[in-house]
Each structure stands twice: as C-alpha cells, then as structure tokens.
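User: My advisor, Dr. K., asked me to get a structural model of this assembly before our group meeting. I'm new to this, so sorry if the format is off. These are the inputs:
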Amino acid sequence: MPAESHNTVVRLRDIHKAYGSGAARTEVLRGVSLDIRAGEVVALVGQSGSGKSTLLNIVGGLDTAEQGSVEVLGTDYAAAGDERLSRLRNDRIGFVFQSFNLLDHLTCLSNVVLPGSFARGHAGSRKAVKERGLEVLGRVGLAELAARRPSELSGGQKQRVAIARALFHRPQLLLCDEPTGNLDTETGREVIDLFTDINRDDGVTLLIVTHEERVSNTAGRVIRIADGLIVEGEAVLEPGESDPADEAPARPVKAEGRSA
Amino acid sequence: MMSPGRLARLVGHNAVRNRRHFALSAFGIVIGIAAFIFFLSLSMGVRGWVMQMFPIDEVEIIAPRTSLIGALGMESGKRLDESVVARLREHDGVRSVVPRMAIGFPAMGVWWYESTKLQFDVVGDGIDPGYLEGDPTAPLFRDYEAEEKGKQLAACGPAPKYPCPSLYYCDKRDLTCHHRVPMLISRKLVEIYNTQFAKSRGLPVIGAMEEFIVQRGGLGKMRLHMDLGASMVQVANLKATPRRIEGVLLGISDKAIPIGVTVPIGYVERWNREYLGEDAAKTYSSIAVRLDSKDDVGPFGTYVEKQLGLRLQDSQGQQFAVVIFVVTLFFLLISFCIVTISAINIAHNFFMQVSERRREIGLLRAVGASQADVRGMFLGEAALIGLVAGIIGIGVAVAAGAAVNLAGRQFLPELPFQPDSFFAFEWWILAGGLVFSVLFCLLGGLLPATRAARMAPAQALVQQ
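Assistant: The format is fine. Below is the predicted structure of the whole assembly, which you can bring to the meeting.
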C-alpha cells in the first residue's frame, strides 16, 4: 500500500550512500530509515559532514541512494524515471537552500516564477503566472520588491524570495537546507516564523536540515544524525502504530513548548 | 519536458544574458557560413556563365586522328559523312545534329582595316544556316550562291566596270555580281584581337560588334577578300587555280569556329569539291550534337566511341566545369574547415559555460527541470547561435558578392557574356547555409549539453 495513503510523506528505508572510491571512499549514510508524516515539521540536526544534507538531497531526488528504498509523496524513486522525478520536484516539492540560489540576472519575480518554466502541461497564461508570482511574493512580504534584482536585496530578503519560489507550485513538502545559515539572528527568526506560518496555514510538511538549536526548537520532531546514522529521535513509525495524521489529515504538527 | 514556447523564452533570455559568449561562439560560424555561401554562389554563378558560353549539353564529334590529314576529318575508314549524321539523328536523346565542314585547302584573307592591309591565311569552316536559328545574324547567314543558281545575275564587266550593289562583288570568272559570302567570327577571336593584336599594333579595340559595324559604315564596309587556293606559305597541288571571292562579316556568333571564319556549309562543300575533289565535299570535320539533357553526355559519349568508332572533342565547357568544380571543392573544403573549427570552438565555449553555470543547472533541476530540459536548453542556445550566425553569414556573403560585382564592373574589362552578377544566390544555397550553420552549432553543443544534463544536481548546487 502506498505510504501516502497513511499520510506518510517521506519513507526512507536502509539508505546507504558513499562518496569516492577505493581508499578515498567515505560512507556518508549507513543504513538510515526515516518516516515523515504529512504536516510535520522535522528538524534534521547533526554536525557538519554527518550526512544530513545528503539525506535531504536524497529525499528531494537531487541525489541518489546506493542502497535502500526512497518513497516520497507516493513515488517510489527506484521505479520513477528522471522525467517523473523532475515532475515531482516541480509540482510537489519545494527547496530552500542556505545560499538562496537565486539567479542574479533575473528579477525577484522572474526568480519566483522559474518553476513555472518547467511546469508540465498547461501552466496557465503569462498573466496568471505573474499573478501567482506576486501572490507568493506577497506571502513572504516582498511584493513591492518584485522588479528588483537579487543583488539589490539583503540576505533575509533573498531567502524570502527563495521561499516564495519554493511555494510557487503550492508544494506538499518543503526541503530546507540550513535556511538560516547565512542570516543574522533577527533575520533568521523571521525566516523561521515564516516556515511556521507556512506549516500552520498551508499544512506543508517541512524537513529542515540545521545545526542551529533555535531552528530545531521550532520543529515537532528532531532527528539527530551522526556518522551516517540516526542516533536520536523517533525516526520510523512502528508497525501498527497509530498515525496521528490519520485522525487529522493535513493538520499541521507543530512543536509546542519549545523556545526558539 | 517543457513546452517549446517556454524553452524558446528561456533560451532567448540566456542568450541575451550570455551575449559575450554568444558573440564569441557565433563569430567563427559567421565567417565559415559566409565563405560557404559566397564560394558556392560564386561557383554556381560562374558555372552558369560558362555553360552559357560553352553549353555542355552540346558535344562535338570528331574522327579519331592519327595524322595531320586526319585533323581535317579525312582519315580513311572513320569518315564523318552523311551516314554518320543519319545514325546520330536516330539516337535517343539527341535534339539536333549539325555537321561542320572545314575548308580543306589553303586560303588567304585580305582586309583593309584602318588604312592597313591585313593579310593572313584563313582557317574556316561551314555550318548549316539552320544551326543559327534564333541568332541575330541568322537572317543574313544564307547560301546566296545556291539561291542565285539559275538566276540572271547583274553584269559587272567587261571594262569599263559596272558597279555592283552593296553587299555584292564582281566575280572575275563570269564578270557578274555575286552576293558576298556571309561570314561569322567567334567572341574568342575578337578577344584575341583585342588583347593580343590590337594592343601591340595600336589598333582600336572592338567593343560591341553591332556598334563596331555601325561605326565602320555598316555591313557594306565589312568586306573581306579571300583568295581561295592561295597562301602565304607553300601550297600543295590543288585541283583548281586560285581565285578571289569576297565575304561580308556579319558579326559574332557562338556557333562560329573559335579561330577563323564560319560560312554557310554549301559554300565550303563547293569550294572543297573545286579544290580537293568529291570526297572532301562529303566529309565533315566535326559534328555538333545537342542532347536533351547534359546527363546524357556520358552514355552518349560511350555510344559514339564504342558503336561508331568516333570520339568526342574535349568540350571547353566540360573542362571549365571541371576546373570550377575543383576550385569550388577547394573553397568549400576551406569553408567546411572554418565551420568545423568554429563548432569545436562552440563546444569549448559551451563546456566553459556548463562549468560556469553548474549552480544554475543544479537549481533548474531542483525546481523541476528534467535532464531533457537541461539538454534542450543548451542545444536551444547552440541552435540559436547557429541561426543568428547563419543569417549574419548570409548577409555577409551577399554583401561581399555585391562588392565583388561592383569591383568587377569598375575594374574588369568587358568580358563576353558578362553577367549582371557573378553570383547565383539560389534559395537552396542560402537555406543550406542556414541549416549547415544550425547543424554544426548543434553538433558543437551536443557533448556539453549532454554533460550538463547528466550533472548530479546535488553536486552542481554546492559549486562555489
């Protein structure tokens, strides 16, 4: 039965990943299993080089596991070809990166509507695309900067534009790789608040890779990874365990009682 | 895969953004395509020009030569006579058969020109007047002597002389007025006169023949004496004594013998019979055969050699065509090399771009671009370079062609059949150049585009 029917958005089993070969071969992930339910905010924490970003990339289909199974939003990555995975990333997964990854030659609005260029089927008229772009820019509070170029923005503003781009196609899963890593404390807090709002208002599932405690404190579940293994946190749903999301589908699961 | 419209927008955007790379990549292609179109159009233009002068759908058949006498088509056993003409006329794909008969005995020409008496041995032949159909000189190129046969001719003697009308001369044999023998010369002869003879002797060059005739007082003044059976060198035994006839130079014709004069064949038959005998009056020096298609030349040549035991005179048109083909091939090879090097340059530039744009590629993959989208984007940029460079190349070639034509008109002497343009910018050459340009750019962009498409997105995104 597809994992999604249980509202399990991400289902990883026994994921192995290594880089290099021969003596230089480094095992980054050594049998990681993880379930993430719909609407959850999961923080993946660990030291640099622990394998958390690699795990995030594998979940997003930007990298491939050498061993193990990956099932995201009902799509079995082993069976899906490049076209199907690309479509999944375009339609249902959003990415937010530490270094924003905005294209400097494009305006903020053009950056935001970039996923629309790769939409399969009819993506709507240019006017509709522009309106959606302005809508998500408005959502992150930057509608008035639509015509600006990224070079004219502050770090926090750039990250908000990147979040708007990730939201363009109304994703079900948002994958964030150190989203506050390049921001000062205050700006980082604003970005975290934005994630919290997105999770609460839109029911978007968030998997956030971070090494900052203030970020992990906002998550409903914290998974700690070290030396390619999950060493702390409830990673896998036990067989027969009642899934809270089954009782309240699409309801955001928000961390409570934690301070930022 | 993304829609063509979105791909085009993305490609256009990237082209504008990377215009420096774009211009660098396009430069070599512009030069290569311009050279390709320039030389191919020049070749086609010059080929058309040469074919007009020396049509290769027309071949000239001669008897195999083994001796000097054979050169006159009198080789025993392999004679060109009426039976050969009849067989040729029956052959499939033959449009017309026109025998030529050389004047087989010596003759000396005398021409008073610019107060100078020019004397020269005459080389000449005869052709059927019907062969000149459509030629401006055709109405006057007739066998007047045959037409006058049996008619009462005006007397011009005995002394005191009675003057003959214009275009007539007094034949000393019967003291009657005969029409002057119509004569034609070739453009080649005029060119030789202009470039070799006139220059060294301070004589005026001949421009347009019609103007020349008018300037000299009309056809009545284009008189040439010809002493049949006489020569400036020793004369072999002939059957008749020398006598003088008069000719009138009608003008220039492509059907005329290249060096010498051409008259209606009836005159030559009678003169050959008079000075050499019956055989000479029935033996042709060559037979011009025009075929329905130039593609038939090869098989027809085989038929002539194998079945008739005769051979084809090397056609000047074919010789020119071969020279033009070789020269064209050489320049096309150069163009091909330029375009190939440019394609390699494009590949190099694109590899650099793929390297520089790793992070962008990673991002595009993250927001939903498939491998095919990334490959399509780079190939689209390569194709756009090819298209723009091709169009500019066409423009450069046409402009260079116009400049060459202008220079040709200003600096080259007037040439026979000189065309308005030396270039034939056929639509298929231009379209071919454009396709060639796009294809080579696509070829150059293929490997880098494939590398970009296969790039692991996660690794691309971590580029610093």
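One thing worth pointing out at the meeting: Chain B has a mean pLDDT of 84.

User: Perfect, thanks a lot.
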